[in-house]
Amino acid sequence: MPISPLPPLHCLVAFDAAVRHASFTRAAAELNLTQSAVSRQIAQLEEFLGRTLFTREHRTLRLTVAGQRYAEQIQRLLNECAEATADLMKRRGDLELTVACSSGVAVLWMTPQLMRFRADHPDVKIRVIVKDGITSLSASEFDLGVYYVRNDLPPDFAGRRLFDEEVFPVCAPAYLDGRTLKPADLVNETLLFIEDGQRKWMSWPDWFELQGVSAPKSPRMVSANYYPLLVQMAIEGGGIVMGWRHMIDPCLEAGLLVKACDSHASLGGGYYLVWPADRHEHAAARIFRNWIYSQIRLPS
């Protein structure tokens, strides 16, 4: 017996995105569609249901009472569908593990950790996915992750703080020819900026403000939206980049970078081991979690 009635799946996906963003325009950007395409799909869904789901007032998008009730159920069902699909695609067994992290964590910190973990636990099959913002990560697509979090974890995630934030400027050893600068001196140097409006990482203006220094109004700067690229530019002598303790430590230990200034700062954030809040922990996740805690000397 066919399941009925079922609206078109693409309309439900568009509806979910519009609910989360409270905007057809931002939903369209997420789905790589035009704003008019998303609007048509919502209209198609409303026609199918015979109910109005949104009220549109002065560029403001609000759910109706029926829309709110429908959204809560559809979001839960889509998440369950995504999780079931991800589980099947990964063919996950007790010794299969998917680890998520940002690009900076992946390149600078996670890679050597995984190599050591593999040496200790060669039977565990590892898959790594790189998502630069924890808010872009779906609970259905990973088992454990390592992410910077400034305030609270997203509601679908649980986690444990691994280490606190500590940020300081770093550069190639030859860049300053052995000198160590004061915070105020940095305004005259080439600064390497991370461009990312979504993450809540510390920026150069934040760092200068915490040092009681006025940030340069027109700094000599190079910017990029990929932090490992900026680190490599610093290694090549292209300027000074902000380094996060623990993440940047391997580069310091290898002599590729040195501290450009003895001062450091924090906005109160930290790096967390995170996992889906409602997921049953399987063997590989438990092994990796306890292994990470042992490396950082946290009790299991």
UniProtKB/TrEMBL annotation:
Regions annotated as coiled coil: none
Which is one GO molecular function term here? DNA-binding transcription factor activity
Q: Where is the HTH lysR-type domain?
A: 7-64
In which domain of life is the source organism classified?
A: Bacteria
What biological-process GO terms show up in the record? DNA-templated transcription
Q: Which UniProt keywords apply?
A: DNA-binding, Transcription, Transcription regulation
InterPro entries, sorted: LysR-type_TF_proteobact-type, LysR_HTH_N, LysR_subst-bd, WH-like_DNA-bd_sf, WH_DNA-bd_sf
Q: Report the sequence similarity comment from the record.
A: Belongs to the LysR transcriptional regulatory family.
Protein name according to UniProt: LysR family transcriptional regulator
